[in-house]
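for the recovery benchmark. tokens below, seq after
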């Protein structure tokens, strides 16, 4: 047996600051420490978002919908960096140091192996966002935690953070974030343990809403790569799949063209060029995800540094294992330059929990919490891991020289242990074993020649601690059968059964398909059988989410009617529960409670239905009954944070303050980042306006109306920030609550304050905002601001005709607002096809905001769609040359107009004098304009200059929209022009 360690030069940066003196004793004793510290990094600041709501639900993003509303949309990043002091959290133990940036989605910024001097996560020494994220800015490096969609909506937003140093020697930073779409809450803890080299991620995903929600979870770990970097999957992985399983290939040797690259042909020219586990061979931006494995680990290994990283998570809930790369080609290198100044290329090793593909969404039930852990740890020079657990990893070589066979194994561990290293034959027993004391960062090697007659499938390589087998390797026997690939579903009329129609629609809804709606499939099912229970229930949920309560009620009652034809004791009582929710919104509280009672007969719905019942009782002042309901529900044992908060509130109302205090302290210890519990504990308020709105809604739902008003008052004074503006909606919520409490004067005052509030980036979302705005219009029919805001919400919810009517009424009411007129123009084109009205609205919007470059860009898009002459469009842009220069997309459009107008040399000047920033998925626009200008001048095709920000791709992606106008079901990207998308195209 031999021991070895590797030493790699370490560069001192702010990340390497010493541990605070007061924590040194704890660290030296073997325990983990955590502390806050400022980390100053060169930072390219994102531009302010557009002031206009972006309705991009037909945008393709990571295989699903690129909808961004209600998030403001960022479209540019500064070209030069400035020093910025980031609030960072440092965690350290004897073996590793981890730095976390709560202000950037709570991502891990760096992971450093103290035993080898190796950065096992890619450390980017600059914060340089590129236009990759769902709503714009995204940075490379470290570990990004993505939920409920990819890339995480809040990836560039700040999170709330709390630090713990525990009695067991562990240290944790907890980061909590707010899902802007469904208002769910995600918390992830990043923990170091005493005397272990693992980084544990503790995730807690909470569906705070009263409807089931879809989600995915991927942890994206970036690692620095070069020609000698290899990603590894378990040895039983023989196939990998693209997004949505639209394509597959063998692994690690690609056996067919993949992402347009013909790997078998390349291997004929250069041996090994088909190995897609090596970064050097992948020439195009490429994803691949395993399709199946019986193992729980994967990772990457740097053969030059003799170090790497392993991820481990329980395969029963964590099947997702993926590699992503921009590609080792000029195209990929262009993206590297957009994301870093000097740290070079990276790949992402992505770990999915409750998901194995993208898109691949699972479900969270109302009120449900899912908890799970993931583990990352560095490995020294063992080579790629062939088996790994959370405690150890091993690399195994089976070699044959002539008649001699040999097995060699290299082990590493994540905690100090005295272990037996063993090679055995399952039939004949131990072939070789040694005892060794191992610590993280060391490599232990053993080897033995095998008997000539021994079948390698009988060999086991083990690391044992006493009687416990910490790790065991055996030769994999993978299934060579080719896995299935996804296909486009047939048109509704071609689907054979109502069952398949329902399931196809459910799939499209669950996976948030960007270009296909479930509605035609469900409409066809109801045409065949108007009483179909599952389809009616699906439509009831959909209409409820859109605020169409009466239509939702009709569908829910139709579902109940079919389900109860023979038996009212239903096996699945969801229909009763959904009907109860709808009745609540319609103000029929007693009937709603009756339906919740029926729903509670089914264990799957007893918690959601019981919570709604308890909330009704609490709002009605029936505190003792509410408490009895809550305590009965808690006997079921399911975690439900809002139920715990409701119990605290009701106990206090009953004067049982000591009980409430004990319960609250225990709940806060278990839920470290929870705004409701923090408020109940000491009146603490979040600073973010959207969080304040949600806190107020939770309090109001429990009948704490006065406290809700106080919280919403704080929201009306919250900063107007790039993550959104809560001020007007908070005022309208206050008005609705004052009206409910019988204070008409205060209600009218708040509606007046709402109309006067700053509306920049105020994009309402959710049923509570919907109901408050509807109530405001009912109280004051001439409230044009309420119409503007409600129209935004309805347009996003698919109620586009109603949104258009509201916007036109607001215009008629005299509200002079560029956002309103732009929205009205968008709706006129998309909804009614009134081209003249659309153009008039955009003209008036530009009169109100003549310095708005986004508005000029959209106006030119519309002018092109309406067939306006090139000369007219060119003249308009020339008169606004300063605005044109503010946007890449406007420069491209202007350059193209110059080229077709015979002024290609001027087009080249514009293009070659600008540093462009392409959108991921939107590459090619700048290059196309440059090529067109050069073609017009008779110049040869060349590699583009660096300032274009992109290079020629090795492989051309599939066409998204075919010549007949049909959008490909598996389209990877679509132009932003989908902002202009007619409901009924001519």
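predicted aa per position
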């Amino acid at each position: 047996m031999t021991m070895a360690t590797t030493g790699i030069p370490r560069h001192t940066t702010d990340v390497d600051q010493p541990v605070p003196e007061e924590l040194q004793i704890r660290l030296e004793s073997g325990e983990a420490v955590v502390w806050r510290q400022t980390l100053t990094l060169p930072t390219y600041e994102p531009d302010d978002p557009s002031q206009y709501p972006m309705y991009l639900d037909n945008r393709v993003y990571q295989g699903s919908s690129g909808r961004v509303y209600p998030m403001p949309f960022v479209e540019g990043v500064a070209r030069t960096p400035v020093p910025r002091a980031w609030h960072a959290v440092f965690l350290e133990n004897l073996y590793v140091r981890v730095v976390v940036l709560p202000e950037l989605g709570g991502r891990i910024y760096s992971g450093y192996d103290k035993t080898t001097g190796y950065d096992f996560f890619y450390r980017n020494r600059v914060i340089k966002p590129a236009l990759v994220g769902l709503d714009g800015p995204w940075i490379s490096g470290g570990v990004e935690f993505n939920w409920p969609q990819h890339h995480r909506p809040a990836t560039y937003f700040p999170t709330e953070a709390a630090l713990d140093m525990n009695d067991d020697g562990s240290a944790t930073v907890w980061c909590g974030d707010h899902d802007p779409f469904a208002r769910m809450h995600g918390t992830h803890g990043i923990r170091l343990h005493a005397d272990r080299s693992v980084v544990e991620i503790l995730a807690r995903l909470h569906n705070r809403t009263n409807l089931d929600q879809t989600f995915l979870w991927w942890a994206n770990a970036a690692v620095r790569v070069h020609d000698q970097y290899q990603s590894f999957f378990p040895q039983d992985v023989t196939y990998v799949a693209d997004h949505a399983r639209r394509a597959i290939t063998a692994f690690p040797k690609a056996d067919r063209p993949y992402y347009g690259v013909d790997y078998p042909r390349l291997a004929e020219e250069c041996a090994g060029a088909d190995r897609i586990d090596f970064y050097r061979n992948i020439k195009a931006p490429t994803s691949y995800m395993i399709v199946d494995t019986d193992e729980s680990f994967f990772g990457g290994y740097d053969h030059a540094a003799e170090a790497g990283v392993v991820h481990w998570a329980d395969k029963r809930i964590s099947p997702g294992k993926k590699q992503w790369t921009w590609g080792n080609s000029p195209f990929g290198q262009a993206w590297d330059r957009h994301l870093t100044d000097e740290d070079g290329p990276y790949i992402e090793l992505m770990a999915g929990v409750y998901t194995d593909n993208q898109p691949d969404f699972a479900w969270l039930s109302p009120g449900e919490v899912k908890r799970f852990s993931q583990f990352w740890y560095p490995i020294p020079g063992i080579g790629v891991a062939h088996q790994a657990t959370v405690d150890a990893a091993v690399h195994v070589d089976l070699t044959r020289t002539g008649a001699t066979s040999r097995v060699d194994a290299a082990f590493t561990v994540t905690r100090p242990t005295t272990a037996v290293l063993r090679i055995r034959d399952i039939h004949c027993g131990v072939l070789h074993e040694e005892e060794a004391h191992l610590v993280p960062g060391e490599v232990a090697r053993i080897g033995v020649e095998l008997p000539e007659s021994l079948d390698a499938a009988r060999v086991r390589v083990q690391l044992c601690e006493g009687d416990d087998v910490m790790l065991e390797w055996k030769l994999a026997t993978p299934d060579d059968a080719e896995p299935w690939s996804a296909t486009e579903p047939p048109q509704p009329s071609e689907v054979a059964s109502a069952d398949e129609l329902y399931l196809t629609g459910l799939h499209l809804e669950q996976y948030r398909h960007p270009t296909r709606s479930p509605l035609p499939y469900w409409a066809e099912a109801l045409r065949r059988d108007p009483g179909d229970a599952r389809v009616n229930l699906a439509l009831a949920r959909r209409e409820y989410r859109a605020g169409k309560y009466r239509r939702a009620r009709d569908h829910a009652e139709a579902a109940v009617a079919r389900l109860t034809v023979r038996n009212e004791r239903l096996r699945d009582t969801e229909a009763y529960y959904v009907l109860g929710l709808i009745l609540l919104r319609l103000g029929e509280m007693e009937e709603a409670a009756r339906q919740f009672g029926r729903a509670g007969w089914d264990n799957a719905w007893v918690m959601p239905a019981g919570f709604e019942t308890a909330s009704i009782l609490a709002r009605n002042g029936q505190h003792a009954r509410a408490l009895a309901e809550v305590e009965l529900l808690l006997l079921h044992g399911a975690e439900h944070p809002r139920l715990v908060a409701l119990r605290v509130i009701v106990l206090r109302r009953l004067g049982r303050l000591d009980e409430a205090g004990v319960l609250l302290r225990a709940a806060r210890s278990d839920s470290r980042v929870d705004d409701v519990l923090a408020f109940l504990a000491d009146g603490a308020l979040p600073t973010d306006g959207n969080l304040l709105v949600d806190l107020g809604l939770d309090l109001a739902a429990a009948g704490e109306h006065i406290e809700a008003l106080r919280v919403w008052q704080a929201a009306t004074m919250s900063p107007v920030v790039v993550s959104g503006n809560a001020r007007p909606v908070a005022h309208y919520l206050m008005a609705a609550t004052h009206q409910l409490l019988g204070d008409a004067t205060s209600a009218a005052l708040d509606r007046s304050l709402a109309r006067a509030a700053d509306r920049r980036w105020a994009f309402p979302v959710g049923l509570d905002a919907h109901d408050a705005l509807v109530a405001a219009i009912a109280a004051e029919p001439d409230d044009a601001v309420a119409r503007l805001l409600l129209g935004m919400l309805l347009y996003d919810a698919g109620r586009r005709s109603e949104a258009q009517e509201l916007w036109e009424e607001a215009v008629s009411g005299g509200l002079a607002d560029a956002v309103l007129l732009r929205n009205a123009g968008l709706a006129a084109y998309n909804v009614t096809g009134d081209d003249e009205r659309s153009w008039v609205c955009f003209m008036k919007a530009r009169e109100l905001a003549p310095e708005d470059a986004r508005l000029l860009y959209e106006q030119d898009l519309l002018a092109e769609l309406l067939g306006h002459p090139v000369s007219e469009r060119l003249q308009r842009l020339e008169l606004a040359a300063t605005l044109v220069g503010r946007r890449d997309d406007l420069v491209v459009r202007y350059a193209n107009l110059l080229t077709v107008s015979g002024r290609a040399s001027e087009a080249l000047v514009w293009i070659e004098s600008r540093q462009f920033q392409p959108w991921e998925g939107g590459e090619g626009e700048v290059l196309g304009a440059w090529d067109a200008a050069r073609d017009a001048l008779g110049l040869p095709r060349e590699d583009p200059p660096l300032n274009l920000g992109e290079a020629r791709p090795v492989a051309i992606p599939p066409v998204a929209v075919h010549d007949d106008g049909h959008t490909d079901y598996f389209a990877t990207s679509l132009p932003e022009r989908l902002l202009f998308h007619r409901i009924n195209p001519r």
